[in-house]
Amino acid sequence: MLQLVVLLKKYPALSIVLRYGVAIASAAGAFAIALFLQSLHMRDPYALVFLAAFWIGVWYGGEGPGILGLVLCTLELTMFLHSQNGLFHIGRYDVAVYCLYFLFVYRIYRFSRLRRRIESSLEQSRDRLEAEVQIRTAELRRRDAYLTEAEKISRTGSWAWNATTSKGFWSSELLRILGFSEESDLTFPFGYCESVHPDDEPDLHAIWQEALQERIEIDHKHRILRSDGSIRHVRFLGRPFPTCNAETEFIGTVTDVTEQHEDREALRKSLEDNQVLLEENKNLQEKLRKENISLQELNLALQGELAAIQRVKFEKIVGGSPALQRTLSKVEQVASTDATVLITGETGTGKELIAQAIHENSKRSRMPFRSVNCAAVPATLIAEELFGHEKGAFTGADRQRVGQFELAAGGTLFLDEIAEIPVEMQATLLRVLEERTFQRVGGTKIISTDVRIIAATNRDLHAAMRSGEFRQDLYYRLNSFPIEVPPLRERREDIPLLVNHFIGVSAAKHGKTIRNIEKRGMELLRLYDWPGNIRELKNVIDTSVIVSNGEGLSIDEELLFATRPTEDAPMGSLQRQMASYERMLIERALAETQGRVYGPSGAAVMLHVPPSTLSAKMKTLNIDPTKFKGR
Q1: 69, 27 in Cβ contact below 8 A?
Q2: Is residue 308 within 8 Å of 497, Cβ to Cβ?
Q3: Are 458 and 464 in contact (CB under 8 A)?
Q4: Residue 506 CB: number of other CB atoms within 10 A?
Q5: Interatomic CA distance for residues 364 and 356, integer angstroms
Q6: Are residues 631 and 591 in contact, defined by beta-carbon separation less than 8 angstroms?
C-alpha cells in the first residue's frame, strides 16, 4: 500500500486516471447490479445502488471524479425509472425517489468534502511534524557532535549507570581514555573497574559502595592502567539523579588529568630544587659571615643569585627591583604573541635590551633580530634602509640591496627612535604594517613580509602628534601593547647589582682586576639621580675602572656632575652640586618613607630636619611627594 502511495505521488497523471477510473468503474458496477435486480423484478433498491456507486466515486476519486460518477449514476437511474413508466413519464413515487436520491447525494458530497479537508489538515500537520522532527533530529545530532568534540578537547568522557536496573552507558571519549576502541563490548561500571590501577581499586570500590548506599556524590582521583601498560591519571565524578520511575541513576564524567599531574610533579621538583638553592644560599651566607665579608657585599651576592634564579629568561637584564619586575612581567605576557610592542622610556634605560628579551622569549627566537636606529639614518635613506632598492633605482645603485624587512623575515624588526622617521615615510610604514607587503625602492614587485615590529622612543608621542610630527594612526597601530621602561632613579635598589656587573665587564675589557668598590663611592652612586640612566652609569664605571690603580674601585664625584644638564638659572658649580645632593637625599628619603614627610616615620625625622624646613626645601626644588606614594 505504501509503495502505491509513493508511486501515485511520483506520477500525478496515473493518479488522475485511477481516480476517474474508480468513478467510472463504480457507475458501471452499479449499472450491472441494477440490471440484475431488474431481472428479478425488484424496483426499490435502484436508488440505493446508484447512491453507493456515487459514494464510492466521490469518496475515493475526489470532487472531479465524484461529479462524473454523479452524472453517470443519475442518467442510469433515470433510464431504469423511465423504462418502467415510459419515456418522459414520472410518477409520484419517482419524484420521492429523486428527492431522496439528491438529498443523499448532497449529504454524501458534503461529508466527502469534510473528510478531504480533515485529511488535508492532517496531512499538513503530518508534514509540519515531520519537518519539525527533522529539524529537532538535526539539532540533536549537532548538539551530540558538539558534545563529542568538547569531550575530545577537554579530554573528558561521560558515563551513566542505573543503580536499579544495572544498565550503564559510557561515551566514546571515555573508552579512548581507558585505551579501548569504540567497538569494544564493555559494560559499566565493571569494565571500568577492571581498568583501575590495582593499588587504587580498593579506595574507589569503597567510595562507590558508600555512594550507592547513601545516594551521595562521588569525587575521586585515581590511576588507570591501560592494556598497553601506560598509566593515566583521571578524576572520577558522579552524581545521583532520581528518574521518573522512582529509580536512581548516576551520571558523571571521567577527566584525564595526566598533564596536570605531571605539571604538579614538575612544580614540586622545581620547588625542591629551589629549596636546595636556598640551602646553598644559607651556606654561602654562613661562609661569608665567617670570612668577615661586609653585610652589604653579602646582600649584594644573595640578591644577584636570587635575581639569576628568578629571571633565567632575561639573562641580559640585570636587576630585581619591583619597578623592573613589573616591566619584565609585561615582557612575559606579550613575548609569546605576535602583537606589535611600543617601548617608551628615557634615554639610556635599556629599551633595546627589552626588545631583545621579547624576541628571545618568543616563537620567533630562532629567526633574525634586526635593529634600526631611525635617528641615525638620514631621512632620504630611510626607505632604502627599511625596504631595500632595485638595481638602477637611482644613480650609484649598481646592484640590488635587500632591506631590513627582508633581512628580518620570520623574526623581529626593532625600530629604535621611531619618532624620528619623517611624516611622509610614516604613511608608507603604516601601510606596510597593515597590508604586510612592500616594494623595494625603484621596484614594482610586491613582496610579502612576516616580521614582528617592536618600536621604541624616548619622546612624548602625544606632544608629537599634537604638533603634527607623528601620525596618530601610526601611533595607535604601534601602541598595541605599550611597555614603559622605568628610569634608573626609580629602581635604585638595582644600582649595586648593575655596578658589580659593569665592573666585571670593564675590568675584563681593560685587563684589570677589581675586587670591590669603596663604600663612599657606592653611596655616591646610590644617591645620584642619573639623568642619563644606565648608559651614564656604565660610562661612569668604565671611566673609573680605567683610572683605577688598585684592586679597589673609587668613584670621582666630578664624573657624576660632568655631564649633568643645568635646568635652573645660572648657578655656581658648588651651588649646583649642593642642590643636586639635597635633591637626591630628599628623594631617597621620600622613596623609603613612601612620600611621608611628617610623623615619626616621615622623611623629616630620617633627615634630622624640622618638617617645615623640609617642606620649604621641597617647594624650592620642585619635589612632589605624591610621586613616591605606593612605591
Answers
A1: yes
A2: no
A3: no
A4: 21
A5: 11
A6: yes
pLDDT tens sequence across 31-40: 777 777 766 6
Query: How many Å apart are CA 215 and CA 419, to the nearest integer?
Result: 70
Helices (H), 11-91: 12-39, 46-61, 63-85
How high is the pLDDT of residue 472?
A: 94
Cell of 592: 623609603
Strand partners, 389: 401, 441
Report helix angle 322-335 to 351-360, nearest 10. 40
Residue found under cell 612624548 = 460
The identity of residue 352, as a single letter, is E
pLDDT at residue 154 in the model: 78
**414 phi-psi bin (left φ>0, alpha ψ -120 to 50, beta other):** beta
Residue 101, C-alpha cell as written in the block: 436520491
DSSP-derived pairing of the beta strands 481-484 and 341-344: parallel
- Nearest residue to 67 via CA among 19, 14, 12: 19
Is there a contact between 14 and 8 (Cβ–Cβ < 8 Å)?
Answer: yes
Distance of alpha carbon 328 from the chain centroid: 22
Residue 242: C-alpha distances to residues 157, 160, 236, 295 (Å): 22, 13, 20, 70
Q: What is the mean pLDDT of residues 155-171?
A: 81
Residue 449 — pLDDT band, cuts 50, 70, 90? very high
In this structure, what DSSP letter does residue 440 have?
Answer: -
Convert 460-477 to b/e letters by CB count within 10 Å (16 or more is b): ebeebbeeebbbeebbeb
Instruction: Residue count of the chain, please give it.
Output: 631
Return all residues near 123 (Cβ < 8 A) that are at least 6 apart: none
For 128-171, the DSSP string reads: HHHHHHHHHHHHHHHHHHHHHHHHHHHTEEEEEEETTT--EEE-
Residue with cell 448532497: 106
Listed residue (470, 456, 463) closest to 346, CA to CA: 456
Checking if the pLDDT of 330 tops 90, the result is: yes
| Grid coordinates given for 88 | 418522459
597-626 mean pLDDT = 82
Q: Determine the Cα–Cα distance for residues 343 and 351; give it in Å rounded to an integer.
A: 7
Integer angstrom CA distances of residue 96 from 93, 203, 275, 447, 587 = 5, 95, 118, 102, 127
Q: Which helix (H) or strand (E) holds 496?
A: helix 495-510
Q: State the chain's maximal CA–CA distance in angstroms.
A: 157
Q: Confirm if 469 and 422 have CB atoms less than 8 A apart.
A: no
Amino acid (one-letter) located at 194: E
Residue 448: closest CA among 457, 440, 438: 438
CA distances in angstroms from 171 to 190, 241, 433, listed in the order given: 15, 19, 48
CB 238 within 8 A of CB 251: yes
* pTM across the whole model: 0.45
φ, ψ for residue 457, nearest 5 deg: -160, 155
DSSP-derived pairing of the beta strands 369-373 and 412-416 = parallel
CA angle 100, 106, 108 (to 5 degrees): 100
| pLDDT (0 to 100) of residue 271 | 84
Nearest Cα to Cα of residue 343 among 422, 246, 416, 452: 416
Nearest in space to 468 (alpha carbons), one of 537, 539, 401, 419: 419
Give the N- to C-terminal CA distance of the chain in Å, as an integer. Answer: 90
Alpha helices by DSSP H, 155-257 = 172-178, 190-193, 201-214
**239: its cell numbers:** 552524581
- The answer to whether residue 567 scores a pLDDT higher than 50 is no
What is the pLDDT at residue 188? 64
